[in-house]
Amino acid sequence: MTKTVVILGAGSGFGFAIAQAFGQQGKHVVLAARHEEALQHMTAQLRAADISADWLVADAANSQSTADLFRQVVQHFGIPETFVYNVADTQLDRPRDTPATHIAQAFDVNVLGAIRTTRQFLDLADTDIPRNILITGGGAALNPVKATTTLSLTKAALRSYAYSLADELADTAVYVGLITIQGISGTSDAMQPANVATAYLQAAADRNQTELRYPAGEQSESEFSALKAVMNDPDRLQTFLQEHPGVNAFLQQHSEFLTD
Description:
The chain is an alpha/beta fold. Helices cover 47% and strands 15% of the residues.
C-alpha cells in the first residue's frame, strides 16, 4: 500500500504542520482544500524541504468534490494509508443572535463533511487493510461558553460521531482517532502548530486511543480563555489577529467578550 496521507483542510496552520510532520516520517502527503494558490505555495514549501507532496483542490461541503479527491488520490498514488479530516468553521458566535442558517452551514462543514468523507475513505478498500482516520476535534466540545455556541455544539456532535465510528470499526484493521485540540493556534508554546502535529503522529503510531487530548489531560476552562491572555500582549495580539481574521471580526462586534 502507498504510504500516502491525505489531509483535507490543509491550511497554513495545523494542516501544513500535520503534512510536514508526516512528510518528515517519509510519508507522501496530499494537501487538499479549496484554495489552489495556497495549496501550491504550501506544496512548494514541503518539496523544498525534501518532503514528497502533492495538492488537490477539494471542498469538504461538496460530496462530489471529495469523491473526486479520493478518486484522483487512488489513481495517482494508490489506496491512502491515512486520512486526516482537519476542516472546521471556527467562527465565534453567541447563542441568541446567530442565524440558524449559519448554524446549519457550520454543521454541514464540521460534522456532515466528516461523515461523508470518512465513508468515502472507508469505501476505498476492505476494512481488513490497516488504515487510519484522524479527525480534528476541539476543546470547545468539552467546555462550551457563550462565545463558542456553534463551534461547541458542532465539535460535540463530531466527537460523538468519532466515538461511534471507532466503536463500529473496533474489530477491524481501520483505526479511528479523534485529536481534541484544547486551545487556539499560536496562543502558547504548546499551541504552536508544529507541536500540535505531534499528537497526530502519536495517534497514527499507537492506534490504541479513540481520543487524544492535546495538550494532554482534561481542561476545566474554555480553550478561549487563552485568547484573553493574548490580549495583554499588544505585539502578540496584532500577529494573532492577522492570522485569525474570524476571531478579529467577532471581537470587533463583541468587545465585551474580553471583559465578561
